[in-house]
């Protein structure tokens, strides 16, 4: 099976750099899946999840906020503001963060800029929550199987 | 005890206190430096990859029409973003940086060009004022820049003014972090985006750490853009400018703390030397005092007999 290098980088660190067999991302125009030998592509990413499949059948989930993806013949480069692996996300904290952001949005919205910032924040936290829950579910399932 | 020895003793004490302070500052700077260096190293890969993406795009696209790539035939107005520090006690760090800026302005025909400066960090601002540079705006800097949101206002201003054709070229002046012992003031072109930027303006010193992504762009067909080429460029290029400024800020911070650590270490060493010298002088004075006293006593007894 063919493989492609995937690099997920944030200004803080390199989150992910491995060989994979497929990756799904959410772009501004919708969900896309990139397989090896994809045509070169540049696209904008929204806050969403990235799911990665390795050569076997293992999967990995990550939550990202907005950014860009560049697909080259031999690698996929994902440049994002923040990215977290599912296992790193604390579900409770993510939930609290989302609630805090919503509260602020309800109580004091000053201008359009702040509104946009807060909505983006909420969106990001929602994605984190979703990814964390998915991971948890799957974790339990595999636990039962083994 | 005679006056001379007491004076020397007092001086030794004061030098010792100073040494304690500089020693503590050295340790603080070292701790901050470690943090700043870790940050700068982490961001480098992001900045490099973003830059690579642009290089790939430039090779494949006709970019001349996009405002970010527009090169004016005649360069009249130039903007320099000067990234310095808030605190002193870091040797000639800010002096060197501003000197570099002044030199590079002189180098590029000062008569035909008007150069404006945006300062980030108060020491650089003061130094720039001393050199009578034209300061357009001054942004407050924090000691350690946590996230790139802090530099957003700068990016916004730079991009806006460049697109409005207020400036023909934008540079960023910062101190490049090569190692904890070596930092170099550096002036780098931000806008318009030029693919050969690196060769033209000296090269960032971490070249050897850089992964060499050698992709032969000629081999593959054109890039696909989603949603559209224009939208991608319009959102990606400001981000690139932001990342480059952010990177410069981080490089400066790592350099600042390294420079301060070094300056403080030199100060501590100098204080140590001074203490040694003063102790020697003190002992000599004391001995001279004792000899004089003995001479007096024996002279007294000799007179009695």
TrEMBL record, chain A:
Membrane topology classification: Peripheral membrane protein
Family (UniProt): Belongs to the ATPase epsilon chain family.
Keyword Transmembrane: no
Compartment(s) where it occurs, according to its Swiss-Prot or TrEMBL record: Cell membrane
Residues annotated as domain ATP synthase F1 complex delta/epsilon subunit N-terminal: 5-83
Superkingdom of the organism of origin: Bacteria
Segments forming domain ATP synthase epsilon subunit C-terminal: 87-132
Principal cellular location given in the protein's record: membrane
Tagged with keyword DNA repair: no
CC per GO annotation: plasma membrane; proton-transporting ATP synthase complex
Name by which UniProt lists this protein: ATP synthase epsilon chain
GO molecular function (one): proton-transporting ATP synthase activity, rotational mechanism
InterPro entries: ATP_F1_dsu/esu_C_sf, ATP_synth_F1_dsu/esu, ATP_synth_F1_dsu/esu_N, ATP_synth_F1_esu_C, ATPsynth_dsu/esu_N
UniProt-listed NCBIfam families: ATP_synt_epsi
Subunit relationships: F-type ATPases have 2 components, CF(1) - the catalytic core - and CF(0) - the membrane proton channel. CF(1) has five subunits: alpha(3), beta(3), gamma(1), delta(1), epsilon(1). CF(0) has three main subunits: a, b and c.
Function: Produces ATP from ADP in the presence of a proton gradient across the membrane.
Alphabetic keyword roster: ATP synthesis, Cell membrane, CF(1), Hydrogen ion transport, Ion transport, Membrane, Transport
From TrEMBL, chain B:
Protein location: Cell membrane; Membrane
Cross-referenced SUPFAM superfamilies: ATP synthase (F1-ATPase), gamma subunit
PANTHER family attached to this UniProt entry: ATP SYNTHASE GAMMA CHAIN, ATP SYNTHASE SUBUNIT GAMMA, MITOCHONDRIAL
Record-linked NCBIfam families: ATPsyn_F1gamma
Organism encoding this protein: Candidatus Komeilibacteria bacterium CG11_big_fil_rev_8_21_14_0_20_36_20
InterPro entries the UniProt entry points to: ATP_synth_F1_ATPase_gsu, ATP_synth_F1_gsu
Annotated transmembrane regions: none
Domain of life: Bacteria
Subunit structure: F-type ATPases have 2 components, CF(1) - the catalytic core - and CF(0) - the membrane proton channel. CF(1) has five subunits: alpha(3), beta(3), gamma(1), delta(1), epsilon(1). CF(0) has three main subunits: a, b and c.
Predominant localisation class: membrane
Record keywords, A-Z: ATP synthesis, Cell membrane, CF(1), Hydrogen ion transport, Ion transport, Membrane, Transport
Family assignment from sequence similarity: Belongs to the ATPase gamma chain family.
Organism classification: Bacteria, Candidatus Komeiliibacteriota
Keyword Membrane applies: yes
A GO cellular component annotation in the UniProt record: plasma membrane
Any one GO molecular function term: ATP binding
Protein name: ATP synthase gamma chain
Function: Produces ATP from ADP in the presence of a proton gradient across the membrane. The gamma chain is believed to be important in regulating ATPase activity and the flow of protons through the CF(0) complex.
Encoding gene (name): atpG
Keyword Manganese annotated: no
């Amino acid at each position: 099976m063919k493989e492609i290098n995937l690099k997920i980088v944030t200004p803080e660190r390199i989150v992910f750099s491995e060989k994979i067999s497929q990756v799904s991302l959410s772009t501004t125009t919708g969900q896309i899946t990139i397989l090896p030998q994809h045509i070169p592509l540049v696209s904008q990413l929204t806050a969403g999840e990235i799911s990665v499949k390795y050569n076997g059948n293992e999967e990995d989930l990550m939550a990202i906020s907005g950014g860009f993806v560049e697909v080259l013949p031999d690698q996929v480069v994902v440049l994002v503001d923040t990215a977290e692996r599912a296992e790193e996300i604390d579900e409770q904290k993510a939930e609290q963060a989302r609630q805090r952001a919503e509260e602020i949005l309800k109580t004091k919205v000053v201008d359009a800029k702040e509104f946009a910032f807060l909505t983006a924040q909420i969106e990001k936290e929602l994605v984190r929550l979703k990814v964390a829950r998915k991971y948890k579910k799957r974790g339990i399932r595999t636990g039962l199987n083994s | 005890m005679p006056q001379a020895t007491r004076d020397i003793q007092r001086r030794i004490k004061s030098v010792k206190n100073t040494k304690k302070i500089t020693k503590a500052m050295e340790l603080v700077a070292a701790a901050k430096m470690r943090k700043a260096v870790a940050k700068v190293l982490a961001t480098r890969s992001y900045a490099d990859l973003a830059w690579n993406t642009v290089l790939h795009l430039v090779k494949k696209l006709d970019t001349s029409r996009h405002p970010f790539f527009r090169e004016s035939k005649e360069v009249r107005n130039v903007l320099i973003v000067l990234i310095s520090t808030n605190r002193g006690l870091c040797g000639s760090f800010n002096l060197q940086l501003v000197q570099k800026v002044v030199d590079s302005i002189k180098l590029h025909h000062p008569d035909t060009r008007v150069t404006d400066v945006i300062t980030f960090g108060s020491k650089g601002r003061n130094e720039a004022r001393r050199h009578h540079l034209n300061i357009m705006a001054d942004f407050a800097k924090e000691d350690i820049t946590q996230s790139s949101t802090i530099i957003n206002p700068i990016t916004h201003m730079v991009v806006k003014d460049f697109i409005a054709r207020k400036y023909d070229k934008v540079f960023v002046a910062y101190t490049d972090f090569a190692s904890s012992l070596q930092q170099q003031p550096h002036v780098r072109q931000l806008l318009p985006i030029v693919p050969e930027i690196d060769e033209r303006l000296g090269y960032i010193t971490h070249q050897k750490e850089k992964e060499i992504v050698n992709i032969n762009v000629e081999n593959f067909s054109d890039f696909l853009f989603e949603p559209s080429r224009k939208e991608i460029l319009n959102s990606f290029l400001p981000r690139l400018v932001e990342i480059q400024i952010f990177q410069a800020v981080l490089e400066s911070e790592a350099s600042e703390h390294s420079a301060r650590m070094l300056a403080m270490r030199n100060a501590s060493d100098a204080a140590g030397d001074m203490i040694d010298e003063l102790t020697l002088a003190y002992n000599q004075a004391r001995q001279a005092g004792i000899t004089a006293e003995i001479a007096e006593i024996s002279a007294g007894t000799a007179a009695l007999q």
